[in-house]
C-alpha cells in the first residue's frame, strides 16, 4: 500500500524464491499467457515480422525507444513496450539494449520504479522524477517473460523487485477499492483519487502474482475489474481516460481537469482485458456496440462521454487493431506496422499481434 513506511528489499519478498521455483510458477500458472509455449519456441512469424518494422522505425542504436508522435521523447512505457516486443520476438540483443538504457536513464536510485519521461536535448533530460505505473508494469512484464524465454534468473529477479515496489508504494485503499495509483505524486486530491484504468496492465498483474505469490495482487486485479465494470459512462458506457474515485464513498466519476473522453489512454483497457482473458461479456458487448456503430472505416479517435461528440478525424490503425479483437464485426486482416503513423499506433498494433498469437495457443 502507499504508506510512509519504508520497506526493505527483504520485506518486499525479492529474492525469497529460488529461480527454479520462479520458473516453475511461471510455467504452471493457468492464466499467465506466455507460459503456454516453451522458452525455446520461436515467436510466431507475424510477431517477428512486425517487430522488425517496429525496431527499424522506433529503436535507436543506444537502446532508446522514440515516441515519434510526441516530439521524439522517450518514456518508461515505450521502453517497456520495446522490451516486451523484443522478448516475444526472441531478440535478446535488442532486449538487453532497451533494458540497459531504461535502467541507466530512468530507474530511480531510492526504489525500483522509473521516471516516466526522457527529453533528449533538455537539461536535465529527466526533469520530472515521477513514475508512471503502467511503464513500471510493462518493464516488469517484459523482464519476467524474457527471464523465462532466455533462461535468465537476473531478469526474473529484476521483475520481482519492480513488482515489490509497485505493490508497496503504488497501491492504496480508496473507499471499497484497493486501487493502483498512476504515479507517486499528483493523483491524490482533497476529496478524490485520480486513476487511469489503462494502467492496469492485466497480463503483468497476473505475472506479478505468479512470481511473488503476494495475495495483494489478487485484490488489485479483482478491484480493477470492479472499477472497469462500474466506471463506464455516456451513451456507449465506455471507460474515461481518467477516473475519479471519491475518497469517502468510493463513488466513481469522470476525473475533472482532463477531457471527459474515451481516447488514447482508455483504448488500452479492452486490449489488456482481452489479452488476459478478463473481458467480461457485458463489457465486451458495450465495446462491440460502440465499434460497430461507426464501423471499421469511421472509428473515431475519441468520443466525449458527456456529450457524445466524436473526434473530427478517424482513429489510427492501432485503434482498428484493438477493435478487431474486442468486438468489431466483419473484422479483416490486422493492419501492419508499415501503415502506422507513429510509435503509439504501432505499439497498439503489435500488442494485438502478440495477444492474438497467444490466444491461438491457449
Automatic annotation (TrEMBL):
Could you name the domain of life of the organism this protein comes from? Answer: Bacteria
UniProt KW Signal keyword: yes
In terms of Gene3D superfamilies, this protein maps to:
1.50.10.10
EC number(s) reported in the record: 3.2.1.-
* Keywords for the protein's UniProt record, in alphabetical order: Carbohydrate metabolism, Cellulose degradation, Glycosidase, Hydrolase, Polysaccharide degradation, Signal
* Signal peptide feature range: 1-39
| Keyword 4Fe-4S included in the entry's annotation | no
Q: What class of enzyme is it?
A: hydrolase
The active site consists of 134 (nucleophile)
InterPro entries hit by this protein: 6-hairpin_glycosidase_sf, 6hp_glycosidase-like_sf, Glyco_hydro_8, Glyco_hydro_8_CS, TAT_signal
Molecular function GO terms recorded: hydrolase activity
- Which family does the record claim for this protein? Belongs to the glycosyl hydrolase 8 (cellulase D) family.
Entry protein name: Glucanase
Q: Which organism is it from?
A: Gluconacetobacter entanii
The uppermost taxa in this organism's lineage are: Bacteria, Pseudomonadati, Pseudomonadota, Alphaproteobacteria, Acetobacterales
